[in-house]
Amino acid sequence: MSFLKNSFFISFEGIDGCGKSTQVRLLSEKMNSESVNTLVVREPGGHAISEDIRKILLNNEYFNMSIRTEALLMASSRSQLTKDIIIPALKKRSLIIADRYSDSTLAYQGGGRGIDVKWLISLNKFATYNIEPDLTIYIDVDVEEGLMRRKIKNSDRLESLGYEFQEKVRNQYLKLVKLFPERIVTINGMQSTEEICKEIWEAIMNRINLNER
Questions:
Q1: DSSP annotation of 11
Q2: Which of 82, 83, 85, 81 is nearest to 49 (CA)?
């Protein structure tokens, strides 16, 4: 597809059950059908070392993990993924789609756990070699809706923290939208899958056209 002249990095964010992973899959399928060189990664994970860290982070047996340990492990996973996977892909002018990235730490460890967000921003910059997405899609749903969608699935260590935690995470996401308005686009996740997909595509095309001017 001729519209993509340079590398482009998109991250998807939202509380558990917002539907972002479905939209990541749909976008990837669309891009592949258009012969766009596309890389999909997830967080935590996306690299052999990062996937091992993911197993520790989400293991329900480690429920009493220190929140500082949690934040540092998240950053460690992201750092390895960025260095070995994302940066090389950027150099190859690929389209990168991330199912979560640095904003998740600000929302979950910042909003949810109460760690200072300014410090976490500095930690993210260090871990990501100052790499930021060109566009972040934040899919917003009510906490009740997110929890209802998660009921049919087994919950990991973070997903099982309940309503109050998810509410703090969502509130922090809404603050991040205001903090980074040039990068984050909010999509109403209460719409149909098709409507969400359409709005995401429009946001991507608008940003790519802006960047290519």
A1: E
A2: 81
